[in-house]
Structures are given as structure tokens and as C-alpha cells.
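agent> Task received from the user: take the single chain below, predict its 3D structure, and emit C-alpha cells. No templates, no multimer pairing.
agent> Plan: (1) validate residues, (2) run structure prediction, (3) serialize to C-alpha cells, (4) report one or two observations.
agent> Step 1 OK, no nonstandard residues flagged.
tool_call: predict_structure(input=
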Amino acid sequence: MTSARILACALLLGLACLTGCGDDEPPSVFRSCGLVVDATSFSVNTDVPKKIREAVPAFLADCDRVAYTVVSGSVGSSDCRQAPLGLNAGPRDGAQGNPHRIEQINLTRRAAAVTVMNRLLDCARQETRTRTGSDVIGALADIARQANPLDTPARLLLISDMAQNTKELNLYKAEIGTAALREAIIARLRRDNRLPRLEGTQVRIVGFGVNVTSDALRQQQFRDFWNLLFQRAGAPPVTYV
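)
tool_result: status=success, residues=241
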């Protein structure tokens, strides 16, 4: 068994209570969230753990549940997985309406959720078969499926340069210089059932475009491509940090 597989199993076993000990039923306004961390070359060239520390705790403050996905060369082939976690105290936690105890449980769960993201990052870095390439679009599709279990709009935080690099689409080389070219790529993704479903989903991206290109025009085209993709996927305007 590989070290990555061992770590993945440990994550699932060690966090079983977090997954199952939250609210028995979701509240009437259920705040579902998703976290995506990039374990490709972006994590080598950027201090991703620092970005996690700076961005994730505040993001989780407004979440009742969080799902996870790691950007790698092949999202579906990775063993580095984690079931969604409930973040709020529920009836089975024995808080008995004590506000202090409820707050303590909620804070502990959110701290554990940050730890999970760091462990998933470490796990994916150790995987060899998913190391080549960067399937950002696959990660988006995966997190969208996990974060919208009740068909309610979710909130997503991505820590990634968004540099899609697969046989299907390599944004380092792809022709994206005009609106027509960008539309054609997205139409192909939709035709191949690869366009994520993000209807109403709020997306926040940390690290967008870092070290992808030094050419100002190409940088703008890169942003224009992702803006169009999120628009066609149904998301409102994206927040870039």
C-alpha cells in the first residue's frame, strides 16, 4: 500500500465522527461549501499552506458543511479523498443548548477542517500516478457534485493558479485570444459533458494566474477564458484574490 493510500485511509477513519456527528437534519437555510486545493506545480512554486492559513478559516465561518477536492493530474484517479464534513454542533453532541459548548464544538470542527485540507494536500503531493498535468476543470466538476447535495447554491474556495494542463485542454498553449475561440473550447467541454454545473455557486479564487505567464495580454486572455467558463457554467461573477 502506498503512503498516499495509507494517508487517505487514515483521513477517512480518523474523521469519521466529524462526518457523522453534525446536525441530524440540515437547517432551513443550509450553507454548503467546497474547498479545492491545488497540489500540482502550483504547490511547489507557491506557499500553499500559508494561503490555506490565511483564507480558509474565515471562509469556513459561514459554512454548515464542507466538501473537498484536490487538483491533480487526474482527480478521479486519486486516493486522496475525504467525505464532506459537518461543521456545526448537533443533537448528538450533548451540548444541551449550552452556547459556550456549541461554540467550542463549532470552532473545533472548523480547525479540524483546515487540518484536513493540509493533509489532503500532502497526500496528493505524494501520489506519483496523478502528478503529471493539472485537471482544474475535473476538480471543479467533482467539488460541484459534492457541494450541492440539496441542489442549493454552494460557496467554493479554490486555492489554485487555475492553469488547466491536460491532453484535453492545455491553457499554457491553447488558442484563447478571441471570444470565439474561448466559446469554442467551452462548447466542446459542454458537448463532452466536462463543463461543471455551478448554477448560482459563489466562487472565490486565491492564487489565480500565479506564474502562469508574464505576458500581460495572455494574462488577460487567461482571465477572460475563466470568466466565460464560470459564466457558461451558471456561476455569478467570480471573486479573485
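agent> Step 4: summary for the user.
The first strand starts at residue 32 and ends at 38.
agent> Done.
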